[in-house]
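Input sequence (87 aa), recorded before submission:
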Amino acid sequence: MQFRRAYHPTTALAKMVQFDADMMHVFLMDGRIISVPLIWFPLLYEAMPEQREQYEIGGGGISLHWPEIDEDLSIAGLMAGVDWDAQ
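Predicted structure, token format:
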């Protein structure tokens, strides 16, 4: 009898970003979604919804950049978690 192995992702690459009132949701190319509180990122939290929608995905999906508010986030950092109180 042969067992099938579960899928284990080796990379996390961003495909799209969406926001709701309190959270940022980063959709990854492999189907996962990272959801984090906006309060962790003061520049994004204070930005207008239109400014949040103006993002760029860099490095083939490894980073996010908002030119208008000069905010940069790495997907690796989002995956690892952020202690916003320490910032």
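Checked by second reader. Strands lie at 14-19, 23-28, 33-37, 56-58, 63-66, 71-74.
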